[in-house]
Design the sequence.
């Protein structure tokens, strides 16, 4: 009988803990769905992700086929008209979503990872390591971003890989400074002291003990970087520093400027990719704002309660 009672206790404990974890995730999901900014941002990003994954289901024309009349206006056959070479603008816009989204997500993820490693390691290890990493971070912070992007992109071979490398090198420093400040506030916490007393390795403490407590800040860093990257990537390609053979929204803007789209009265050739860049940036920004509101109740908008009329 004693053995049965002892073996039953862990099951009770697990059963009591499991619903709490599930309920916390459920409450977070409900908070995301109830937030209008999060819902709007997620809808925008899901639509763009669908267009990037299945462009052929939305646009049925070949984006590179110059087989139509030049500089046509919007019509039922060509929703956004055609280019100076007779290519369908709507097809180019849809097919250009994939590479634009890939560059944005990959750069944001890698830059967030670098900022996490540099910032948390600098704060926790301290000493010479902290001074060295902080100096490197400060150097990248004071460098003028746009001129550095132009110089790097002009000397490296054009292409998506070069774009990813250039944007990653110039976008991690600010987030690393923020993560270092957050990690400094955790150095004296009891769970880190206990981990050091157990003799855990530094890498284990950083990755297992510190990083999970900074998940919300890491997500916010990724979303904020995505807003920055989508605009700067399109800007570099618009300046002609990307690979003109790759179809992105930035290269569409470049060819629209080279072809004199606005002067020829073909405004949608230039406006459509610019609006798409703004839409993707708005999607990431809305999710970022909503994430801050969910994590910090002080940022949530105050909703006025409806007054109930008094009974006569």
Sequence:
């Amino acid at each position: 009988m004693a053995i049965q009672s002892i073996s039953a206790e862990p099951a009770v404990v697990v059963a009591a803990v499991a619903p709490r974890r599930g309920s916390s995730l459920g409450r977070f999901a409900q908070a995301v769905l109830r937030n209008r900014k999060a819902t709007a941002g997620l809808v925008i990003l899901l639509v763009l992700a669908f267009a990037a994954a299945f462009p052929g289901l939305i646009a049925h024309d070949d984006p590179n086929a110059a087989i139509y009349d030049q500089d046509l206006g919007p019509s039922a056959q060509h929703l956004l008209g055609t280019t100076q070479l007779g290519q369908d603008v709507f097809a180019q816009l849809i097919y250009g979503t994939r590479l634009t989204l890939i560059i944005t997500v990959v750069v944001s993820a890698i830059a967030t990872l670098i900022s996490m490693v540099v910032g948390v390691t600098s704060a926790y290890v301290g000493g010479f390591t902290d001074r060295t990493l902080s100096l490197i971070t400060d150097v990248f912070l004071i460098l003028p971003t746009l001129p550095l992007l132009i110089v790097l992109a002009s000397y490296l071979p054009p292409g998506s890989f070069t774009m990813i490398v250039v944007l990653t090198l110039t976008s991690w420093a600010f987030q690393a400074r923020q993560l270092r400040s957050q990690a400094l506030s955790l150095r004296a916490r009891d769970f880190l002291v206990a981990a050091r007393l157990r003799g855990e390795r530094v890498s284990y403490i950083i990755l297992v003990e510190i990083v999970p407590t900074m998940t919300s800040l890491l997500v916010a860093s990724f979303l904020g970087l995505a807003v920055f990257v989508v605009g700067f990537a399109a800007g570099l390609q618009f300046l002609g520093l990307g690979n003109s053979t790759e179809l992105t929204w930035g290269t569409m803007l470049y060819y629209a400027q080279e072809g004199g789209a606005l002067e020829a009265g073909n405004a949608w050739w230039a406006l459509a990719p610019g609006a798409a860049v703004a839409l993707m940036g708005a999607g990431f920004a809305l999710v970022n704002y909503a994430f801050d509101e969910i994590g910090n109740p002080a940022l949530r908008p105050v909703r006025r309660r409806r007054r109930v009329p008094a009974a006569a």
Q: What stands out?
A: The radius of gyration is 25 Å. The CA atoms of residues 112 and 222 lie 6 Å apart. Residues 89-125 form the longest helix (37 residues).
